[in-house]
Design a protein that fits this description.
This protein has 14 helices and 21 strands. With about 450 residues, the chain is α/β, with parallel strands linked by helices. Helix 1 crosses helix 2, helix 1 crosses helix 4 and helix 8 packs parallel to helix 9.
């Protein structure tokens, strides 16, 4: 069987069903994951969590994945339909050896893939195992185990998750907000239902029925068009705020009472201040893409800002390495450190945010107004064949900058504007994110940098 190497990416495995990802390959990925983890842990008997989202190809891909695992002698704990954060929680909280989530996150309906973790839900990234698993698949030398693994199930994950993630949050302080939620016919509805089960809030639900064809809009709230329905519903219902989740519910976005999306860098800064009040002087992680208000608020609250590469698995790896209590990615991932693991925890995020909002005695739009002080370009992609050449050209052009970093692509900082240009891991693209003290300067410098990249 010919394997399309491009589906093995820096943070997960992701392809188009059935063109680049099918049941035969899924079976081999199960075998390769088992072989990889056995070699790494030196354990003959592994217990692995498997879950999936609501995509139409999910059941058959999951079944073939499980067959690959049990044929390799691995015991499988099937937790059924699950959000990715609940999957992470199950692996870490119940002390399993690892896990695989069948999901393509926010991608269109014809896509599917796998997110893979070790024990404690420690991510497997391109740098820490995905490419090794790819090579094991391509080598295609597997031995069937003489003793097959067994399949079992867990039914109480959500109940244990909400208990574990809310036991130190005083939810009695949450006011009776009216909240519109849009889960995009995806897995977020499971988590939302249990989050709000014992809260005094009124929920207005949009697109709550699971449907892997995504009949209403793409499950990617990072794209503004996918928040339009939510924003209109917040205004129409005179709601206090809106909440949107992506396809596998590991990314959360908010809109204020006027239907205006809350910038992830502002939300990240607010949540960092909350954590620093509970854990003074701690480290907070955020990715290198511009979002300076996050750094401002971390420093204002007495925390230590730690800049990371882009990518949910890379941020979590950095958090574990540097003992960081909270992290946020510009794409809407928010990570918390627990005694049993470090991973996305939307239940903790939403409940803490609602407690914070309840104490402000102001509307959400009033609260965030003072933090919306920088102009951001958004992420702009440009097709570039020689990405390294262009990065070097930018370094030469802006060599008088007050700071230049090569942590992830190139980051160039001046006093009144700053930007990051980083290469795609899988495509001939450069991604620009630029921020400035004014919208006029942002537009001027955005066009200047794009002219260099695209000429």
């Amino acid at each position: 069987m010919e394997v399309n190497k491009s589906i093995f990416k820096a943070y997960d495995i992701r392809g188009v069903y059935p063109e680049t990802l099918n049941e035969e390959l899924s079976y081999k990925i199960g075998q390769a994951y088992a072989k990889f983890l056995k070699n790494e842990t030196l354990k003959d008997k592994l217990s692995i969590v498997v879950a999936s989202d609501m995509r139409l190809s999910g059941p058959s891909l999951k079944n073939s994945l499980i067959k690959g695992l049990i044929d390799s002698g691995v015991n499988v704990v099937d937790i059924g339909l699950s959000s990715t954060p609940s999957f992470y929680f199950a692996v870490a909280y119940y002390s399993f050896d690892g896990g695989l989530q069948v999901s393509a996150s926010h991608n269109p309906a014809e896509h599917n893939g796998y997110k893979m973790v070790r024990e404690n839900a420690i991510p497997i990234s391109g740098d820490s195992g995905i490419y090794e698993i790819r090579d094991i698949v391509i080598e295609d030398k597997f031995e069937l185990s003489k003793i097959k693994g067994k399949i079992s199930s867990l039914d109480n994950v959500l109940e244990d998750e909400i208990k574990a993630q809310s036991n130190e949050i005083n939810i009695s302080e949450i006011k009776p907000f009216k909240i519109v939620v849009d889960t995009a016919n995806s897995m977020g509805i499971y988590d939302i239902e249990i989050m709000f089960k014992n809260l005094p809030c009124t929920l207005i639900k949009l697109n709550e029925k699971l449907d892997g064809t995504f009949p209403n809009h793409e499950p990617d709230p990072l794209k503004s068009e996918n928040l339009e329905q939510l924003s209109k519903a917040v205004i129409h219902n005179n709601a206090d705020l809106g909440i949107a989740s992506d396809g596998d519910a590991d990314r959360y976005f908010f809109v204020d009472n006027k239907g205006v999306p809350l910038k992830p860098e502002i939300l990240r800064g607010i949540m960092a201040m909350i954590e620093l009040k509970e854990h003074p002087g701690s480290k907070i992680a955020y990715d290198i893409r511009p979002g300076r208000i996050t750094k401002d608020l971390i420093l204002e609250a007495g925390g230590i800002p730690v800049v990371t590469k882009v990518g949910h698995s890379l941020i979590k790896e950095q958090m574990l390495k540097s003992n960081i209590i909270f992290g946020g990615e510009s794409s809407g991932h928010f990570f918390y450190k627990f005694d049993f693991g470090t991973f996305e925890a939307p239940m903790t995020l939403v409940l803490k945010f609602l407690v914070y909002l309840s104490k402000q005695n102001k509307s959400l739009s009033e609260i965030i107004k003072k933090y919306d002080i920088y102009a951001h370009s958004g992420e702009i992609n440009s097709k570039v064949e020689d990405k390294e050449y262009k990065i070097n050209e930018l370094a030469e052009k802006f060599k008088d900058a007050i700071n230049i970093s090569y942590l992830d692509g190139i980051t160039i900082e001046y006093e009144n504007y700053w930007f990051n240009v980083r290469p795609s891991n899988t495509e001939s693209l450069l991604r620009l994110n630029l921020e400035a003290n004014s919208n006029e300067l942002m537009e001027q410098k955005r066009d200047e940098v794009l002219n260099i990249i695209r000429k």
